[in-house]
Amino acid sequence: MAGLRGLCYPGIKDPDPKGFSLMKLLVERLSTTPTALAFDADASWWEAVGGDRDAAEPQLQGEVHFTLSAQKLAEELYIEGEARAEFECTCSRCLVRYRHALREPFRIVLEPAAERVPSEAEGADALARYGLWLGDELDAGWFRGTEIDLTGFLQEVMVLAFPVQPLCRADCRGLCPQCGTDRNTQSCDCEQVRSDSPFAVLRGVVTERGD
Ligand SMILES: [Zn+2]
Ligand SMILES: [Zn+2]
Question: pTM (2 decimals)?
Fold first, then answer.
């Protein structure tokens, strides 16, 4: 299962036969001139990172496209790029299935770890295994060795980019909580003011006054 194809840069090693560690950067190939890279990862990669656990989860349509530019200035590495993908997912308000276009830029600055070791075990493990450790903000960290495996970072980018509550459109009106009518397409006679709205209280006051 090779989740990656279309390698266009000799600094990227061949896809790992296991299909997990696919995106490796060779440090000695980088220079002050930005190097452009592109990867396409298919559905098997998305599944491998736990993207499609069941049918209700967002389903990748086609491939995930990663483009990035990497350069080495003095001792530091600058990597910036973008992830693009289309998913079919369920609107959290009206439950309709829709196509969600995801476009997520990222940028990281890495300095050599040298003799430093991240204080938490997970970070130390990542630095040893992937040659890469990033802080909580995922925008800066350390690298070690000649090879940096970006797979985990790019997985993280994708997972964080995905909205917790996907919406088919920003102004989706959702389903009526009482009768279930899709308020995007039909209206119903149920109470229009939601009880948790601050205006519901106000409305109660107005009604008591006899308006
Ligand atoms: Zn919706
Ligand atoms: Zn209703």
Answer: 0.72
Nearest to 33 by CA among 66, 7, 75, 72: 72
- Give tens-digit pLDDT for 22-66: 578 889 889 999 999 888 887 777 776 665 555 557 888 888 899
Q: Are residues 93 and 182 in the same domain?
A: no
Whether 125 and 182 map to the same domain: the answer is no
Domain that residue 49 falls in: 4-161
Kindly identify the ligand whose nearest atom is closest to the C-alpha of 173.
1
Indicate the residue type of 129: R
State in Å: Cα 55 to ligand 1 middle: 18
pLDDT tens for 153-173 read 888 888 788 888 899 999 999
Q: How close is the Cα of 181 to the center of ligand 2, in Å? A: 6
Instruction: Return the ligand number nearest the Cα of 192.
Output: 2
Ligand nearest to the CA of 174: 1
E strand map for the chain: 4-5, 24-26, 35-41, 59-73, 76-90, 97-112, 132-134, 140-143, 147-149
Say if residue 52 is in the same domain as residue 9: yes
Instruction: Measure 201 CA to ligand 2 centroid, in angstroms.
Output: 20
Residues 134 and 186 both lie in one domain: no
